[in-house]
C-alpha cells in the first residue's frame, strides 16, 4: 500500500505546477506560490535568496506545502499536503541537475538562452531550494468527503 500511495502522490504532483509554500520566520508565518519540479517526493524550486520565504528557510527549515488544482466542486477537491524541511541546495552539481529538471518541466526556462542578458543574468543568480517531506497527505474527495491517505516518510520523535 505505501508503494501504491507513493506512486499516486507522485503522479498527482506531476499533473500540477504550482505549490503554496508556508514558512515561518522572525516576521511570522508567510506563504508563497512557486513553480516546482518533483524529485522523488521532494519538491524543488528556484528563488531569490533574499525573498522572505528563502530568508525564513535559512532561519527555520520547517515548512509546509500544498498542491491542489482550482475547483468549485467539493467532489473534485484533490490535493497534496506535506510538511518537512527545506534547504538551499549548495552542491553545485546537484543544483545544476535540479535546474535542468526544472528547465525540462518548464519550457520557458529553456528559452532563457535566447532571452535578454539581464533576464539570463537574473535567473543565473537565483538559488535552488528543496523540500524533503516527512509527512504527505493525499486528499481525494472523489473517494468520499474529506478522504485522506497519509504517507509517513520519516519517523516522528
Brief synopsis:
It is built from five helices and eight strands, in the order αββββαββαααββ. With 157 residues, the chain is α+β, with helices and mostly antiparallel strands. Strands 1, 2, 3, 4, 5, 6, 7 and 8 form an eight-stranded antiparallel sheet that branches.
Lay out the secondary structure.
Layout (H helix, E strand, L loop, with lengths): L1 H14 L2 E8 L2 E8 L1 E3 L2 E6 L4 H8 L2 E6 L10 E11 L3 H14 L1 H4 L6 H9 L1 E14 L7 E5 L5
Antiparallel strand pairs: 1-2, 1-5, 3-4, 4-7, 5-6, 6-7, 7-8
InterPro entries: F420H2_bilvrd_red/Heme_oxyg, Pyridox_Oxase_N, Split_barrel_FMN-bd
Organism: Rhodoplanes serenus
Keywords: Oxidoreductase
Q: State the fourth-level CATH superfamily.
A: Electron Transport, Fmn-binding Protein, Chain A
DSSP strand (E) fraction? 35-45%
CATH architecture: Roll
Q: What's the shape?
A: globular
DSSP strand tally: 8
Q: What is the number of helical segments per DSSP (H or I, 4+ residues)?
A: 5
State the end-to-end distance.
Answer: 24 Å
Mean pLDDT across every amino acid position: 90
What about the largest sheet? 8 strands, antiparallel
How does this model look, in words?
The protein has 157 residues and is α+β, with helices and mostly antiparallel strands. It has a single domain, classed as Electron Transport, Fmn-binding Protein, Chain A (Pnp Oxidase, Chain A, Roll). It has helices at 2-15, 52-59, 92-105, 107-110, 117-125; strands at residues 18-25, 28-35, 37-39, 42-47, 62-67, 78-88, 127-140, 148-152. Strands 1, 2, 3, 4, 5, 6, 7 and 8 form an 8-stranded antiparallel beta sheet that branches. Strand 7 (127-140) and strand 8 (148-152) form a beta hairpin. The chain is globular, with a radius of gyration of 16 Å.
Amino acid at each position: 500500500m505505501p508503494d501504491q500511495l507513493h506512486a499516486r502522490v507522485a503522479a498527482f504532483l506531476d499533473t500540477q505546477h504550482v505549490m503554496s509554500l508556508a514558512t515561518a520566520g522572525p516576521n511570522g508565518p508567510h506563504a508563497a506560490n512557486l513553480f516546482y519540479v518533483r524529485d522523488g517526493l521532494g519538491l524543488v524550486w528556484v528563488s531569490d535568496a533574499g525573498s522572505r520565504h528563502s530568508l525564513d528557510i535559512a532561519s527555520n527549515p520547517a515548512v509546509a506545502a500544498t498542491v491542489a488544482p482550482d475547483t468549485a466542486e467539493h467532489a473534485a477537491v484533490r490535493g497534496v499536503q506535506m510538511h518537512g524541511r527545506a534547504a538551499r541546495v549548495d552542491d553545485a552539481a546537484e543544483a545544476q541537475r535540479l535546474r535542468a529538471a526544472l528547465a525540462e518541466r518548464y519550457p520557458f526556462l529553456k528559452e532563457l538562452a535566447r532571452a535578454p542578458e539581464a533576464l539570463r543574468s537574473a535567473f543565473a543568480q537565483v538559488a535552488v531550494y528543496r523540500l524533503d517531506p516527512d509527512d504527505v497527505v493525499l486528499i481525494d474527495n472523489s473517494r468520499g468527503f474529506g478522504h485522506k491517505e497519509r504517507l509517513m516518510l520519516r519517523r516522528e520523535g
